């Protein structure tokens, strides 16, 4: 049975994540307030950011940068600016 959360990103009830995918307090917040759909959106952005900025996930500064981007994206609904990336016209 899937769980429903009020997704802060989508601003509506949506299917929640099956388990906590991120550690700590932030992970709990994501688990309780972010939907699968919003998390999937973030994963796409995260991959683009890591590739574009050549982030090293072993580097604490890079991880901190990514976490800030993730928080802004999921909870502040700020779009992630990816240099050299133009979103497709919808």
Automatic annotation (TrEMBL):
InterPro entries listed in its UniProt record: Fe_traffick_prot_YggX, Fe_traffick_prot_YggX_sf
Keywords, sorted A to Z: Iron
GO CC terms of this entry: cytosol
Presence of the UniProt keyword Amino-acid biosynthesis in the record: no
GO terms, molecular function: iron ion binding
GO process annotations (BP): cellular response to oxidative stress
HAMAP family: Fe_traffic_YggX
Family: Belongs to the Fe(2+)-trafficking protein family.
Function, in words: Could be a mediator in iron transactions between iron acquisition and iron-requiring processes, such as synthesis and/or repair of Fe-S clusters in biosynthetic enzymes. Necessary to maintain high levels of aconitase under oxidative stress.
Protein's UniProt name: Probable Fe(2+)-trafficking protein
């Amino acid at each position: 049975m899937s769980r429903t959360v009020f997704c802060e990103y989508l601003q509506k009830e949506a299917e929640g994540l099956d388990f906590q995918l991120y550690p700590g307090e932030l992970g709990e917040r994501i688990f309780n307030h972010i939907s699968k759909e919003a998390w999937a959106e973030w994963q796409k952005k995260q991959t683009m950011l890591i590739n574009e900025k050549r982030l090293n996930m072993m580097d604490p500064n890079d991880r901190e940068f990514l976490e800030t981007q993730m928080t802004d994206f999921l909870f502040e609904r700020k779009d992630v600016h990816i240099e050299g990336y133009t979103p497709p016209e919808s």
